[in-house]
Amino acid sequence: QMADPFLYNTGERSHYGCLGHEVQIEYLKAYVCRPSFFTDKAVIVVHDVFGWRFPDIRYIVDLIAGHGYITICPDFFKGTEPWKSTDHWADFADWMKDHDPTKVDKEADVVLKYLKEQCGAKKIGIAGFSWGGMAVHHLMLKNPQLTAGVSLYGIIRDSEERYNLLNPTFFIFGEKDHTISLDQIFLLEEKLKQYCKVSYKIKVYPGQVHGFAQLKPEDMKPEDKPYIEEARKDMIDWIKMFV
């Protein structure tokens, strides 16, 4: 029996009343939250394996919107079932085959078009968590329309082409993430130094496990709270710098 990769218990989430609303964009559903004033800046949030309806990810969408961005979390699983905490970890590899984080280009284009044409967005950034972090890493190599990216504990591991980032990208990791070893983080850093032509940043947060940065305040342990808040502030600062 392999250890469950998601160390936070997703079964007992506190209730969260969302600030945004759901929209239909072509064949995709999405959750959108807008700031109270007009802006031509937007951020796409890419959910983790628990999907676009997961309360923690909606909390993050609302948080980013509160900093003055039209923020949107599309259903990158296109209506299929997200991973559930009751699913068997032995089936995860098979599930991933049908939910490939590097096959998100079409959905990203649909959402970019919507943000530009329907929302008047001129600068668009992206932030993704875990599965979504992998999707962000992929998109920052492929889609020049994304002005900046933040990948939280998700990287593409098996490609030599993964270092030629098109625009500024920030990689956030937990020191105790058992899905991404420190060796992999050091390799990423070494290769980015070698190949990357744009701004990038890598930061490791002490003592933090996979999934740490999207916890809602009432679900945080007191000892983790400063690191969670720091990671979120760092994410917002990166977006503010470039988007």
TrEMBL record:
Q: Tell me any Pfam family this protein matches.
A: DLH
Instruction: Mark the transmembrane ranges.
Output: none
List the GO terms this entry assigns under cellular component, sorted alphabetically: cytosol
Q: The Dienelactone hydrolase domain covers which part of the protein? A: 29-241
Name its cellular compartments. Answer: Cytoplasm, Cytosol
Per the record, the major location class is cytoplasm
| InterPro entries assigned | AB_hydrolase_fold, CMBL, Dienelactn_hydro
Q: Which GO terms describe its molecular function?
A: hydrolase activity
Q: Which SUPFAM superfamilies match?
A: alpha/beta-Hydrolases (SSF53474)
PANTHER family given in the database record: CARBOXYMETHYLENEBUTENOLIDASE HOMOLOG
What family, per the record?
Answer: Belongs to the dienelactone hydrolase family.
Name the UniProt record assigns to this protein? Carboxymethylenebutenolidase homolog
